[in-house]
């Protein structure tokens, strides 16, 4: 077991953190090497297995990422932009693979992540699932095939605790469609329409966000023109798909050179 790549999970007590811990612990291809929580958290110093409500597993939750990363080969990080930027710096020092599932980044945040990738493998995606990444490629191809008479809308739905909108996945899909059309998404997007907005801007990619209940994640890419519509859809019913994808990314990155990668690279799409 000690020969298997060691993986640290950040934000271990969170919704995705718990799922990631369980997924890595159950894997026969990796070992759970550490768990990180913020300073002052009730889990600090506790055995992770017990904190999760099960048997002790020998992994002690810590607020010292440098020590944990130094003893591992990868870190999987679904936290928040500010925390992820700091974790990226530490992962670079430790030369361990940094898998980033965090969403809600601004352009300045992404710029802040880049220097760390000169020293370590950095794999970032708004969504780690195989199905969503296939959908991204399909959205690009359909957008490329259809002219500007076809409007493009991305509709996404998530649970009521999600703090960012549009979702990282929705932005992935929008950027793929924009690439298919030959422009940068941020130059021609519409989001959060309200009131008397006027007619839809020709050629723009629109976004709508739904928040409610415990929806894991639903994404539609709608192509609409006079008389017909095409809808590409992905529905997630279990967060385990994201954890499995993140683990796949962490393992894939073990023999790669430092740099920035995404799930398209991991999946070879």
TrEMBL record:
User: Pathway, per UniProt?
Assistant: Amino-acid biosynthesis; L-lysine biosynthesis via DAP pathway; (S)-tetrahydrodipicolinate from L-aspartate: step 4/4
What class does this enzyme belong to in the EC scheme?
Answer: oxidoreductase
Which InterPro entries does the entry link to?
A: DapB_C, DapB_N, DapB_N_CS, DHDPR_bac, NAD(P)-bd_dom_sf
Which reaction is the catalytic activity of this chain?
(S)-2,3,4,5-tetrahydrodipicolinate + NAD(+) + H2O = (2S,4S)-4-hydroxy-2,3,4,5-tetrahydrodipicolinate + NADH + H(+); (S)-2,3,4,5-tetrahydrodipicolinate + NADP(+) + H2O = (2S,4S)-4-hydroxy-2,3,4,5-tetrahydrodipicolinate + NADPH + H(+)
Q: Which GO terms describe its molecular function?
A: 4-hydroxy-tetrahydrodipicolinate reductase; NAD binding; NADP binding; oxidoreductase activity, acting on CH or CH2 groups, NAD or NADP as acceptor
User: Any idea where the Dihydrodipicolinate reductase N-terminal domain is?
Assistant: 7-128
PROSITE patterns linked? DAPB
Q: Which domain of life is it from?
A: Bacteria
Keyword terms of this UniProt record? Amino-acid biosynthesis, Cytoplasm, Diaminopimelate biosynthesis, Lysine biosynthesis, NAD, NADP, Oxidoreductase
Positions binding NAD(+) in this chain are 11-16, 37, 101-103, 125-128
State the HAMAP family in the record.
DapB
What does the UniProt function comment say about this protein? Answer: Catalyzes the conversion of 4-hydroxy-tetrahydrodipicolinate (HTPA) to tetrahydrodipicolinate.
Entry protein name:
4-hydroxy-tetrahydrodipicolinate reductase
